[in-house]
Amino acid sequence: MPDKHYYGCCACIGSAGIGLVPKMQLLTAKDALALNLFIDTEISSESASGQKITFSISGGYPKNGKVKVNISLENDEEFTLLIRNPAWSKNTSVLVNGESADTCDGYISLCRVWKNGDTIEINLDMRTEALRPIPY
């Protein structure tokens, strides 16, 4: 740089990347939607058939790990909703309309006929963990 400082790529690419974070909250995949981030918001997308689906997310994440997702859609529709299960959450639980759903590492797959007013409750394990780097 003209001022004799080296900023590296993180200074410019990192700040640009932060602006893309909201666009990654809900992604589409073939015949599925993937919910990646749990911040309070309302986000809309379309199903594979083109129907508008709105997800209202609340709970105050990351202040706590209790996340509630309300689903709004005009007509009942079967599709898969993938919910990101963060690697740091060692004991995640998910309820769909009050009933327990199976969880796994990576993405939790919820395939069902979704109806207007369905709710998903996600309880993330927010315990802290000390990570130590590998000594060189």
Q: Could you explain the architecture of this structure?
A:
The chain is mostly beta strands and 136 residues long. The model has no long low-confidence stretch (mean pLDDT 90). It is globular and about 60 Å long. The protein is 10% helix and 43% strand. The chain has one helix and ten strands. The longest helix is centred in the N-terminal third of the chain and has 13 residues, at 8-20. The strands form two sheets. Strands 3-4-5-10-7-8 form a six-stranded antiparallel beta sheet, with no helix packed on it. Strands 1-2-6-9 form a four-stranded mixed beta sheet, with no helix packed on it.
| Distinct helical segment count | 1
Strand order of the largest sheet: 3-4-5-10-7-8
* Secondary-structure element series: HEEEEEEEEEE
Q: Helix- and strand-based class?
A: mainly beta
The low-confidence runs, each spanning 5 or more residues with pLDDT under 50, are none
Query: What is the percentage of strand-forming residues?
Result: 35-45%
The count of DSSP E runs of length 2 or more, i.e. the number of strands, is 10
What's the Cα radius of gyration? Answer: 18 Å
Instruction: Let me know the largest β-sheet.
Output: 6 strands, antiparallel
Residue share in helices?
Answer: under 10%
